[in-house]
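Comment thread on ticket #2218

A.B. wrote:
> Attaching the input chain for the structure job we discussed in standup.
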Amino acid sequence: MGNGERPELGEELKNSFCATHPDMARVFARTTFRSDSRDELKGVKVPTLVLECTQDVIAPPREVGTFVHQAIPGSKLVTLDATGHCPHLSAPQATNEAITAFLTSLR
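C.D. wrote:
> Ran it. Output below, let me know if you need it in another format.
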């Protein structure tokens, strides 16, 4: 989670993973660690919001987010002032505001 000052977030994520059926966890892990879909990003044809956190050891900001943003035509990149790979847990308000602003801009 990358939020050492908020250990409850890591506990919440751990509990979520531990509650996952082992067969589903295996599919998730295989897909996550053995797939490479970067070439498919250019084919995305829907409005896309790319969210990244200022500090994320899994997806380093300005590397991963920028890559995804540049690969998806017309996407919008927003960097949240948040730490960790799960901003919906560590910064739910900022995540919600970014998504709401993006959806509102589509009207």
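A.B. wrote:
> Thanks. Noting for the ticket: Helices lie at 7-19, 22-34, 64-71, 87-90, 92-105.
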